[in-house]
């Protein structure tokens, strides 16, 4: 019997989240932050929070529902894209250190970028981690290791793209010493925030 598809919605003081789950598998999620709206008051204001939740709820759910299909398409695109690539380009697994054989808990793609005009001569790095393992520094540590290998192989420039409201992913880019280059619509037909890795940073 197939497990039911569940849409979960969560609100905290300054975040509105939506997630699509089947069984124990998180298919897609989206988070909207209202940190900037509260910042000018020096703390969380309940009235501002409730209004921000109402404004963010439907867009967050729409993004979660849309990204479930997009995630599958992106995984297939990565799989197709990595065929024939020379190491270290490809998909890297994030495996926690520990005793015995540990299952992967995420991926680090290191793949050539192409835009509407074709190959761009640039490489994309990303980080995708199971929610149960977020908040432990694994994405930063794994991405830093892959970037170091890329630098040793002479691969560059390396970019990372995040959703505009993905504060956690943007924080990872900042910890990696990546330069925020602002908003771009060049890649994948999406509006995203672009970061550039500076190997000697």
Q: Uncertain segments of ≥5 residues (pLDDT<50)?
A: none
How many domains, as an integer?
Answer: 2
How many E strands?
A: 10
Taking all Cα atoms into account, the compactness measure Rg is 18 Å
Q: What is the CATH architecture assignment of the largest domain? A: 3-Layer(aba) Sandwich
Structure description:
By secondary structure, the chain is of the alpha+beta class. It folds into two domains: 5-73, ATPase, nucleotide binding domain (Nucleotidyltransferase, domain 5, 2-Layer Sandwich); 84-196, Aminopeptidase. It is 33% helix and 32% strand. It has four helices and ten strands; from the N terminus they run βββααββββαβαββ. The protein has helices spanning 35-39, 46-82, 138-152, 167-175, and strands at residues 5-11, 15-22, 25-33, 90-94, 106-115, 118-125, 128-129, 158-162, 179-184, 192-196. Strands 4, 5, 6, 7, 8, 9 and 10 form a seven-stranded mixed β-sheet that branches. Strands 1-2-3 form a three-stranded antiparallel β-sheet. A hairpin with a 7-residue loop joins strand 9 (179-184) and strand 10 (192-196). It is globular. The N and C termini lie far apart (52 Å). 22% of the residues are buried. The model has no long low-confidence stretch (mean pLDDT 80).
């Amino acid at each position: 019997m197939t497990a039911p598809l569940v849409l979960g919605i969560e609100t905290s003081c300054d975040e509105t989240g939506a997630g699509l789950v089947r069984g124990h598998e998180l298919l897609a999620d989206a988070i909207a932050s209202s940190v900037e709206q509260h910042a000018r008051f020096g703390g969380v204001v309940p009235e501002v929070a409730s209004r921000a939740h109402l404004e963010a709820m439907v867009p967050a759910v729409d993004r979660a529902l849309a990204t479930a299909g997009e995630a599958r398409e992106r995984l297939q695109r990565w799989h197709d894209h990595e065929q024939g690539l020379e190491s270290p380009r490809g998909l890297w697994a994030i495996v926690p250190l520990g005793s015995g054989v540990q299952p992967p808990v995420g991926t680090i793609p290191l793949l050539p970028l192409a835009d509407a005009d074709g190959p761009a001569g640039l490489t994309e790095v990303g980080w995708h981690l199971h929610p149960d393992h977020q908040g432990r520094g694994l994405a930063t540590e794994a991405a830093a290791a892959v970037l170091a290998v890329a630098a040793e192989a002479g691969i560059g420039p390396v970019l990372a793209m995040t959703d505009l409201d993905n504060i956690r992913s943007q924080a990872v880019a900042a910890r990696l010493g990546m330069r925020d280059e602002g908003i771009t619509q060049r890649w994948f037909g999406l509006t995203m925030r672009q970061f550039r890795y500076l190997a000697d940073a």
